[in-house]
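Per your request, structure below.
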């Protein structure tokens, strides 16, 4: 997959459930408007023409301007680009809207006005009216609401590009979160995904100069999976079974009798949004960083599963101190031999064996054979992705570290080795760690001995606990109450 590394990380932060402000002037009183493929194509073509004309006009003015004036003209152009793109996305539901929300989590790699404007898609995604949402829940579950719930709030507690979430109480008194898909969203997304040209056009506007074709293919495959809430429910059950009774990790369970293909009801998480952790003391941020790290790498190395949406919209800070992980629409389940491919690369890296690392990288197809670089150059290039585990000592994950990974993954113009790398299907979703997880941990500036924690989680080492949280986890595994202890 040409340029696969730098493209696949764009999907790292796929939006799921995002806290929103209800727009007072949304005017949405009926079903979510469905814009058909031809209408979207015309809208995107108009957008592209406007932006191309504006850029040409600005470049002509810059040629005759002073340095300061050129910078001002460029800043004004980036602002207009952002406003125009976001205005177009804001009128859509489906893959286009989702794409903008995904891109909004990239703190680096795009002009600042574009990043800030796209962030508004997270906070301002207008929900469907409450009466429509409740009627959709009733229709999908096949019974009157009063027979299904004791209470259900018509005002959504969260909304995003595919669906929205309502707080409810079941007839037997359980507090739940009810996620309902927007009516017609599957058709809207199908139209977007069929229209690869429009998707590619939007990506090129958000990331100028980026070849978007492989990301379009990734979006087609992965977003389609997220539309099936039965698939998500099965993923949730698997994680619930594995992490049952964990002292720091909570997976809210599915309420089967109140779930369907486009409604998913789970336990309600009572707590606060994840972003609140940034204002807490560093010790708490370190603790949460360790929880995230253990969840991602335990799931991968022991459960052979990976939740492909590691970003703050999918994490909540529960009132009891645990971190709750929600939204499992995009999960990759691995075979043991596939996880062993990751392990082989790690072992060669830790042994500092450049020749063996290159041989392994070619065998597992993350490096094309015959790349015109020395073994040591190849080793040094890949080492950045393993930096946190190379030394057995406490390290702080910094914003600079996550930014370096992002630029390393994107910038083929200054990175000749990148052009010879590859992302085989086994590795595709794992690249989301490099942006989704490490970017988040960089914001936390979390400190821990990541090597020692990893050695606890790597099955081929199975080291004893290296931290108090590790001791809690070892006790949990030994209790046998979960899938981890069986």
């Amino acid at each position: 997959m040409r340029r696969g590394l730098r493209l696949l990380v764009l999907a790292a932060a796929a939006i799921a459930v995002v806290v929103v402000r209800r727009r007072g002037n949304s005017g949405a009183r009926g079903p979510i408007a469905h814009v058909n493929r031809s209408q979207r194509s015309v809208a995107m073509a108009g957008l592209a023409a406007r932006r191309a004309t504006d850029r040409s006009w600005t470049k002509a003015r810059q040629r005759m301007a002073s340095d300061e004036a050129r910078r001002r003209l460029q800043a004004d152009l980036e602002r207009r680009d952002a406003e125009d793109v976001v205005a177009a996305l804001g009128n859509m539901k489906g893959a286009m809207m989702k794409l903008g929300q995904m891109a909004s989590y990239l703190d680096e790699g795009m002009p600042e006005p574009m990043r800030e404007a796209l962030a508004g898609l997270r906070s301002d995604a207008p929900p469907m009216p409450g009466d429509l949402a409740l009627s959709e829940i009733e229709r999908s579950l096949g019974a009157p609401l009063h027979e299904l719930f004791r209470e259900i709030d018509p005002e959504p507690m969260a909304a995003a590009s595919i669906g929205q979430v309502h707080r409810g109480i079941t007839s037997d008194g359980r507090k739940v979160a009810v996620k309902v898909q927007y009516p017609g969203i599957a058709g809207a997304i199908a139209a977007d995904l069929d229209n690869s040209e429009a998707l590619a056009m939007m990506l090129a506007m958000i990331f100028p100069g980026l070849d978007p074709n492989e990301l379009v293919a990734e979006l087609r495959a992965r977003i389609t999976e997220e539309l099936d809430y039965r698939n998500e429910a099965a993923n949730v059950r698997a994680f619930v079974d594995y992490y049952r009774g964990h002292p720091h990790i909570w997976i809210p369970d599915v309420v089967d009798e109140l779930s369907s293909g486009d409604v998913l009801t789970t336990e309600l998480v009572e707590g606060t949004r994840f972003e609140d952790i940034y204002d807490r003391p560093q010790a708490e941020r370190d603790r949460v960083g360790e929880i995230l790290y253990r969840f991602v790498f335990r799931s991968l190395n022991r459960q052979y599963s990976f939740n492909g949406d590691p970003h703050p919209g999918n994490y909540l800070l529960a009132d009891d101190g645990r971190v709750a992980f929600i939204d499992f629409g995009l999960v990759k389940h691995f075979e043991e031999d596939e996880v062993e491919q990751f392990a082989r690369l790690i072992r060669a890296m830790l042994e500092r064996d450049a020749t063996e690392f290159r041989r392994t990288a070619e065998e597992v197809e993350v490096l094309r054979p015959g790349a015109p670089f020395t073994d040591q150059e190849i080793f040094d290039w890949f080492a950045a992705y393993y930096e946190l585990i190379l030394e057995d000592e406490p390290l702080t994950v910094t914003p600079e570290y996550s930014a370096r990974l992002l630029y390393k993954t994107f910038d083929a113009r200054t990175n000749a080795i990148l052009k010879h790398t590859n992302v085989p299907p086994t590795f595709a979703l794992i690249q989301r760690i490099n942006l989704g997880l490490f970017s988040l941990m960089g914001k936390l500036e979390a400190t821990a001995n990541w090597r020692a924690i990893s050695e606890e989680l790597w099955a081929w080492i199975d080291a004893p606990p290296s931290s108090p949280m590790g001791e809690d986890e070892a006790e949990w595994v030994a209790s046998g109450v979960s899938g981890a202890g069986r």
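Residues 270-486 form one domain.

Regards,
D.
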